[in-house]
Amino acid sequence: MTISKSDNKIKIIVENQTEGFMNALRRACMFNVPILAIEDVYFTKNSSALYDEIIAHRLGLTPLKTNTKLISKEICRCKGEGCSGCQVKFSLDSSGPKIVTAKELVGDKKAADIICPDMPIVELLEGQELKFDAIAVLGTGKEHMKWSSGLVYFQHYPKITGFSVEGAKHCPKGVFADGKVKNLEACDLCLSCVDKSNGKIKVEGEPNKFILTVESWGQLTPKELITQACNVINAKLKEVKVK
């Protein structure tokens, strides 16, 4: 069941699962799903105030829309040499005075697109130039944060019994209204209401029911992220040998 949904964020209810599975799903989403990011940068000109390494680091952290048809270099038919099936090439040629932004990156729009086109890369003064070629490849968050897909977290589904006017006043999430629980799914189990209720309110988490929040940085949609994370978990389970 979906609690809330937007382009890059979804909050859903997951039932009949364990904390172990939920944590495995969280870790798979954040650290095991392949994401596209710039890995290699070849500078031809750079007379800006920033070193090549700093600009390359900024480029690596520039979010790129990931084409799910791309595959890892390790399993590509090119055997790691690099081809259109496992990498995307970008180039940039700019001169000052101006602030160079991500939208100036020129690449294959069908394979990858810039998510934050106004993200600044470097400021060029009069007479300064920046020119380079860059290659983006798939990677995972466990290798480097530039391949991180987003923020994923979960909590037990809340269960609230009892009521206290004083306790309700101290709820920071607006869970209570008109003398009763009005917005249960907004409760994050902070227990602020319990501390001020003199024992009249009891808050606990349901053991096998959870609220999962997936906030994507934009490389993949939350649905794609969850789907690929489940595929990763299934692939790992196939490697388990039962004696």
Descriptors:
38% strand, 14 strands, four-stranded antiparallel β-sheet, single chain, 243 residues, 20% helix, alpha+beta, 5 helices
Characterise the protein shown here:
The protein has five helices and 14 strands. 30% of the residues are buried. The strands form five sheets. It has a four-stranded antiparallel sheet with strand order 1-2-14-11. A four-stranded antiparallel sheet has the order 3-10-5-7, with helices on one face. It has a two-stranded antiparallel sheet with strand order 4-8. The mean pLDDT is 91. It has helices at residues 19-31, 52-60, 165-169, 192-195, 222-238, and strands spanning 2-5, 9-15, 35-46, 64-66, 87-95, 98-101, 106-107, 112-114, 120-124, 129-139, 150-162, 176-177, 180-181, 201-216. It is α+β, with helices and mostly antiparallel strands. The longest helix has 17 residues, at 222-238. A hairpin with a 2-residue loop joins strand 12 and strand 13. Helices cover 20% and strands 38% of the residues.
Shape: flat
Order of helices and strands: EEHEHEEEEEEEEHEEHEH
- Portion of residues in beta strands equals 35-45%
Distance from first to last alpha carbon? 37 Å
Helix content: 10-25%
List segments where confidence is low: pLDDT < 50 over at least 5 consecutive residues.
none
- What is the radius of gyration computed over CA atoms, rounded to a whole number of angstroms? 23 Å
Structural class: alpha+beta
Largest pleated sheet: 4 strands, antiparallel
